[in-house]
Fold each of these.
Amino acid sequence: MELRGRVSSFMEPELIEIKQDRPGFDRFIGSWICPGDKTLVIDVGPSRSLPKLIDALMAMGVHRVDFVLLTHIHMDHAGGLAEFLDHYPMARAVCHSNAIAHLVDPSKLWLGSRKTLGDLAEAYGPIRPVERERLLPHTETRVEGIDIIETPGHAPHHLSFIVEGNLFAGEAGGIYLAGKDWEYLRPATPPVFSLKEFLASIDRLLAAEDLPICYAHFGRAGRSHPMLKRQRAQLLFWESVMREELAKGDDRLTERCMGRLLREDPELKDFGAMPAADQEREKFFTASSLKGYWGFLQENPQS
């Protein structure tokens, strides 16, 4: 099925926080909504918290959603898709063509999520199958006003979207968090991870216009190019640290790398300013990201 059409007259995008019933997960998972002639929602979050997203949309008076744009199908972005489409039966979900099979039959996706996330996968909730006819492959979607950019790295099926002057980068630009007096940028590189693909994806986004960048985790920055360049430099810095520490042996490798990064990575300098529960969350995801680097470096031992 090929979708062609036009989406126009958007209002400013708005980020809806999807609160999780777990310490350290406030202001971390969200869904972007672009109201207009056609209403778009970018990512829907986990299944267990999907009712909170629906309640927020209904409170905003959003009774129709035309398209769901999925940056990728990890369960914190797409786990609640089946339930979301139940509530908005007119909506269609645009996703990477290679992700469709995993949404129709999420059994492998669920097993992989449990392996990577452990009990956090259970907290996010189960993944229900999505009807094939509700899914639109990105390769067959042509809608004026929506530009789709393939951005693998964080996930092989990752997409970014440019909609009416805003870049929705998912996790292709990393994790960007900011408080009143602090700022924090971290790569999202869980297994299986390809640094080469991640860097190529950033270069692809840098080739696009310098736009406001909307992060899945969590917020918006005024210009994409400076933020993407910061993420690119950080990815390469993490590689250099990981290679140096790996050369010393693999004993306590994750602990050693994490300690060095917290001391030496300027993007992590405000780690201590975050709430304690947020710090524990970030330690968990940083360890996962370092495992992704470790796997990549084992397959690519030369710089």
Amino acid sequence: MIIPFSEWIPDAADLGNPGVVRVLNVFPGLNSYKPVGTLTSVSNALDGRPRGAITFRDADSIVRQYAGDASKLYELSANTWDDRSKSGGYITGDQEAWEFTNFKNQILATNYSDAIQQITPGATAFSDLTTDFRARTIAAVGNFVFAGNTFDTTDDAVPDRIRWSAFNNAADWTVDAATGSGVADLKTGGAVLKIIGGEVGVIVCEKATFRVTFAGAPKWHEIRETIPGLGALSKGAVSDFGGTVFLWSEQGFFAVTGGTKLHPIGANKVDDFARNDLVAESRRRISSAVDPRTGRVYWAYPGEGSSDGQPNKILVYDPKLDKWSYIEQITELLWGSGGSAITVDDAVIGELTVDSLDDLIDSDRWSGDAPQFAAFDSSYQSGYFNGSAMAAEIDTQERELTSGLRSQLLGVRPLVDGGAVTVQAATRNLQTDTEAFSSAASVNSSGIAPIRKNARYFRFRAAMSGDWDDAIGIQIDPMYLRAAQGR
């Protein structure tokens, strides 16, 4: 008998669950689970909690990376975050965050508390793009810059308002049909949370999603509500990759393609688990990003046990497999980094070994060439999940090992490729009983984890550490199992 480590479905009951009931610090695989590397910092620390970051390739094909905290904006150079703030710095509100976009070889940044900022590659400081208004979200849609959830001295705060610049001119926001600059109040969707750029724009609000398409002069844009009733928990709960928007909403997790087609990805799988675990009053601290290499989508959020709203957990979705997994890791911000454009001579000596030198020289991480999934840790340093494998656990579903009877179990064989493995059995005789876990049993020379239990219902917890590759399941050999007396 093999109990496979199949799809993680925490929303299903333990007994009869078609998947596994709990995972920790693993990635989903085709027919197994894979290890997650520890988060390893490579940069110095920002002065304050990171509130946003961006990577883009400039007109000279140089990878540029910017980030912001409450009072400063930074640029990454050889693993050092250099201050690029305008004179006087910034006063980002406690509940606000920086959002960045690139437009015509220019980086724009907004935090709602200050004027929208701009910087061109090679410049030493940001400066005001416009003082006409402030905004919470910003993105480049076609040949225009869109900003949403605005404040100006005439109308004060207008959460459902979007504005767009003149055609090919990020500095001109004077409403004029001749230049293309305009304004619209969406009215039906609540506050604008996030604008997703591209040739077609997607606007995610609290209670609706809109699509922006180019219409030409004099109208310039058509803005249409395409998904009524579906918004996001916060702007950090929205990310995009390859034309698909991934969002965490009040109703659960969804993928939106083309701004119109809605695909539930968490229903009957993780929606209830996430809803119950989230510290709802700290939802503004959610951040999300897509790993451009694997396509996996990550949501870091403050869950049970969070201190002061700090994100302490990460949900992972693999669109290619349509499977989920879960990581426990304190992070301040998830983002798409471009690696570090430095030479081997600049590298931290402690990272160099004879075995890793070739990999180091060839790595995109050091060339700054390819985008990579990254995070800021609790010390406000940026890094990657590329350290040694994190300690991991997988719990199988609960089942009867002998149909209709209690079973006498003597041991199990964990099917894990490499590393060190221990196994525990959780048992009970009635569904109203509380499960009791056995002590953790290590694998002996025969590949068996000796566990002696007599019960009706069993589930197993495998714990992996060290250098392992695939966790496949738990095998129960007939010689270690027999029917027991009693029901």
Amino acid sequence: MIDIPKDKKIILTDGVCNLCNGIVLKIIKYDRRNTFLFANLQSEAGKELTKYLGIDTKKIDAIILYEPGVSYEIKSNAALKIMDDFGGFWKLTFVLRVFPVSFRDVIYDIIAKNRYKWFGKKESCMMPTPEMKAKFLS
């Protein structure tokens, strides 16, 4: 198993998706407490982690938030928990929890299903800049 610091939360995303890469860059910007590390689902670290968690990425092609020793979340729950960690006005996203997970995930799935068509796709995973490299599991 890859070595994950216990004080970090891991976010796994689709590394070739333009929307996902944009979201990763936003999370890095708002992660003022340096809470998150990242891995692409297509990377060795991503494959090892999803195997460890028992997640079949052919069935669940979504954002995954893994809190070592605690739990993991997928889809809308993962997105909301990530935003909770930003603090400030981002805490207002808690109001979205009034909607049932099944409803939120239907919206999530529509966006996920169309993400390549609407936002495009890269030929390979994003290469982090030297400054960002410490934020990614290898």
